[in-house]
């Protein structure tokens, strides 16, 4: 489905943060995603403030989201990508990815990165590949940190 087909069905993708429904985003990440279980609303709000965000809407109702952490010059990390379950299998995730990859401010990036447990096929359609030099990459990973945020 192309942009016009989605637009005719009342869908919109926007980077306008004032349109984002933080309740929908937080609920999905906290309760429905495998990567964001236990994330606090404050962490979600802070992550949105400091990222380029793409909201997917139908008739002004948020049905999808993606967040890009980037310097707009050399690097972008794509994360928190989702389409709500009732809206899947309609091509929205592909349209979202096309929109992100075609964003004018992101055309000269040298490297894009993401992590996924189950959507390799989607991202491969947009040029993502397994790390070629994975032995060069390092990380500090604290998965339990967000669960501890509200307990101090």
Automatic annotation (TrEMBL):
UniProt KW keywords: Transferase
Entry-linked CDD domains: NAT_SF (cd04301)
Any GO MF annotation of the entry: acyltransferase activity, transferring groups other than amino-acyl groups
InterPro entries linked to this entry: Acetyltransferase_Butenolide, Acyl_CoA_acyltransferase, GNAT_dom
Protein name: GNAT family N-acetyltransferase
Domain N-acetyltransferase: 12-143
């Amino acid at each position: 489905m192309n942009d016009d087909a989605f637009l005719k069905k009342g869908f919109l993708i926007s980077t306008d943060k004032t349109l984002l429904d933080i309740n929908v985003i937080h609920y999905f990440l906290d309760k429905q995603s495998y990567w964001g279980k236990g994330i606090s609303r404050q962490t979600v709000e802070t992550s949105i403030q400091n990222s380029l965000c793409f909201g997917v809407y139908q008739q002004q109702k948020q049905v999808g989201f993606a967040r890009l952490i980037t310097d707009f010059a050399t690097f972008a990390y794509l994360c928190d990508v989702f389409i709500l379950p009732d809206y899947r299998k309609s091509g929205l995730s592909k349209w979202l990815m096309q929109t992100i990859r075609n964003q004018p401010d992101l055309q000269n990036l040298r490297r894009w990165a993401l992590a996924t447990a189950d959507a390799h096929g989607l991202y491969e359609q947009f040029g993502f590949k397994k790390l070629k030099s994975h032995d060069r990459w390092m990380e500090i990973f604290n998965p339990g940190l967000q669960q501890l945020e509200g307990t101090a």
